[in-house]
Design a protein that fits this description.
The protein contains four helices and nine strands, in the order E-H-E-E-H-E-H-E-H-E-E-E-E. By secondary structure, the protein is an alpha+beta fold. It has two domains: 61 residues, Ribosomal Protein S8, Chain: A, domain 1; 112 residues, 2-Layer Sandwich (hypothetical protein PF0899 fold), CATH 3.30.2320. It has a six-stranded mixed sheet. A three-stranded antiparallel sheet has the order 1-3-2, with helices on one face. Strand 2 and strand 3 form a beta hairpin.
Length: 189
């Protein structure tokens, strides 16, 4: 059997977190004749593997299951419906309270890539949040499969767990009507 060494790399999407690396490394270790696995600080996993001439070195790694959208598809997601025009701080307090009543620990917020969260918070509370990576001490994770007007609080059965441990989530549709300035168009008959 004539073997040759091939080198490849896999980019780990930032929104998959540590679980993205774990899934990738687990999938690589299932392959025969892996010689080396390297992880760099930019989120890339490189590997070297010996393959024979009849074998193709195509490794498909399904990271969709560890993206926020994939995780939320397997969790119970409840829609939170509240009276309109409540300040964002009150809405977030109600989300935390609902989890406390249900004995669920909040672990992260999830929203869309172009989230309106910070603008919604600023407009409704007249105060700005300066951190873009956390909200009230919880990570804010952005995912392209989540609408930019959705705010989802993810929870688990234990505190300080990873997003992949999400068992329950509360979804809120942020009011975009209050974010748009009033129209200055005038209709002339």
């Amino acid at each position: 059997m004539d073997l040759r060494e091939v080198s490849r790399s896999v980019e780990i999407p930032k929104n998959t977190g540590i679980e993205g690396f774990v899934v990738t490394i687990r999938e690589l270790l299932r392959r025969p004749r892996i010689q080396e696995i390297l992880i760099d600080s930019k989120g890339k996993v490189s590997y070297k593997r010996l393959v024979d001439e009849s074998e193709e070195d195509v490794i498909n790694i399904d990271l969709e299951t560890v993206t926020p959208g994939g995780i939320l598809r397997t969790a119970t997601v409840d829609e939170l419906v509240l009276p309109p025009h409540l300040p964002a701080a009150v809405v977030l307090g109600k989300m935390f309270d609902r989890f406390a009543i249900d004995q669920t620990y909040p672990i992260a917020f999830v929203s869309g890539i172009g989230t309106v969260f910070w603008e919604w918070y600023r407009v409704t509370t007249k105060a700005a949040l300066h951190s873009r990576s956390t909200v009230f001490g919880l990570p804010m994770i952005l995912d392209r499969h989540v609408p930019e007007t959705a705010l989802i609080l993810c929870g688990a059965a234990a505190p300080s767990t990873a997003l992949v441990d999400t068992t329950r989530a509360l979804k809120l549709e942020m009011e975009t009507a209050i974010l748009k300035p009033p129209s200055t168009d005038v209709e002339i008959l």
